[in-house]
Amino acid sequence: MAKFGLLFTTLLAIAIAIKAESDPHDFFSQRLGQSMLRTMLDNGMATDNSAVPADELNPNFWRKSANDEIQKRLADKLNTNKAKNVIFFLGDGMSLSTITAARILKGQRQGNPGEESQLSFEKFPYTGLSRTYCTNAQVADSACTSTAYLTGVKTNILSLGVGPNVNYNDCEASMDPANDLTSLYDWAQAAGKSTGFITTTTLTHASPTGGYAHVSNRMWECDTDVRTYLQDSYTSDCKDIATQLITEEPGRKLDFIMGGGAGKFLPKTMIDPFGNPGERSDGKNLLSEWQRRHPGGLFVSSRKQMEAINLEQTTSVMGIFQSKLMNFHQHATESEPTLSEMTETGIKFLSKDDDGFFIFIEGGLIDYGNHYNKPGLSLDETLEFERAIELARNLTDPEDTLIVVTADHAHPLSISGYPERGNNILDVNEIGFDTNGVHYATLNYAAGPEQYLDESGNRIELKGQFGSPDFIFPSYISSDSGVHSGDDVGVFASGPWEHLFRGVLQQNTLPHLMAYAACIGDGAKSCD
Ligand SMILES: *[C@@H]1O[C@H](CO)[C@@H](O)[C@H](O)[C@H]1NC(C)=O
Ligand SMILES: [Zn+2]
């Protein structure tokens, strides 16, 4: 209703402005606003209803759908069961605008206008906002945020699993056990639950790592990286992230890990299953070390091998499907499982434990798509992520399994006005032009590699250029890559204690709420 009100007011204002020709303080009477909106009006804005589904043209449709929402809420019962299982889904860089645009793309792929579509987790009964700033950063990275949402403590940008009292790249302080933060993985393991994580990035990438590594620099993924960053002060006491995953708690106690990044676990002298040399300088083969420590465990490196796992007989699983990051879902090879397939395997495997499980599942390439300013990829990744969440909800019971979906930080992706209903979300605004009469893309980023300007600094026409999912969308600030943004991100919850996940939350509160619901950790617990 508010949107219609606004549109109406806008149109009224335009009409008055056009007629009165006048007040320079009125936005709509100024040249830019007036000519842009006038052109859109001339091109059918506000009068072309051809894309609107017929039932939406009846006011009663809106009244009925609102009433349905009221009834649904009234029927909700507080679910105060103990959460036997917790599934934590993290869409890296999945800003609210990314969710909206992905929802539109989902509907458009089904042949609908798109705006009315809904992602699986948007049906979850409770929603909140998460404030993502880090102790020393207004706009966060994926490391300090991971520390916040997995350990429950906000920390410095680029830090993983250590508190804000540890300085960037300070190895001695980060190796001091007194500075280690414990996480949902530790808390679940202490309660006898099975634990695991899945990512489409590398096993040593920031998001899953805030819960198992303790480093003051997220770039220390293998010893070669630590050497690069510490130079002369390098010592082997300074344990890289891959080593911590295989040899330290809680990493070595994880029952199920899947993702990319084989290189960080193998020496430079070895060739990984994908034909590339390892990245380690210390000669260690951490994959054989994992196998030695998990005699009943199975290492897999292809979709076929993953499908063949005997989930009953295998005691732990490690899957690595690429040397570095996994491919975008759009570009995945036949031998790479999808996020949904990994999710299904993970949940089925961990469900064997009568004490329950905790799993962290990351759609890690949403962020990469946004960094590249390629919404064709980031929105597709978001849709694969929402499919994995739907599958997880289907495979588990809301009576005993809490599912929480959130993002670590946002991206400055805007959805700009005023394309018509059903305008292709991955194309130009068909009816809109800038002051030079040039179309503009509905989706724009604040920063990135392509401004699409001619020699005189005027924007060039992009209509007809958007065929590929790899098309780079325009940005305002010129930079080699897109940047994160500091706006809040969404939180969506379904299952035991779902009603705690509401309001405007500090990001570090999230794991405490999950621990409360599952009766794990050292803080407040629902069963106390
Ligand atoms: C989840 O279950 C619904 C209802 O049975 C079904 O329509 C849907 O396809 C399932 N989703 C997935 C991802 O398997
Ligand atoms: Zn990022």
Automatic annotation (TrEMBL):
InterPro entries assigned to the protein according to its UniProt record, in alphabetical order: Alkaline_phosphatase, Alkaline_phosphatase_core_sf
Main location as per UniProt: membrane
A Pfam family that the UniProt record links to this protein: Alk_phosphatase
KW Amino-acid biosynthesis (keyword) present: no
Signal peptide region: 1-20
Cofactor: Mg(2+); Zn(2+)
Localization terms from the record: Cell membrane
Tagged with keyword Translocase: no
Cofactor: record remark: Binds 1 Mg(2+) ion. Binds 2 Zn(2+) ions.
Binding site for Zn(2+): D92, D367, H371, D408, H409, H484
Topology of this chain in the membrane: Lipid-anchor; GPI-anchor
EC number: 3.1.3.1
Binding of Mg(2+), residues: D92, H205, S207, E362
Keyword entries, A-Z: Cell membrane, Glycoprotein, GPI-anchor, Hydrolase, Lipoprotein, Magnesium, Membrane, Metal-binding, Signal, Zinc
A GO molecular-function annotation: alkaline phosphatase activity
Active-site residue numbers: S142
One Gene Ontology cellular component: plasma membrane
CDD domains cross-referenced by the UniProt entry: ALP
Similarity remark: Belongs to the alkaline phosphatase family.
Protein name: alkaline phosphatase
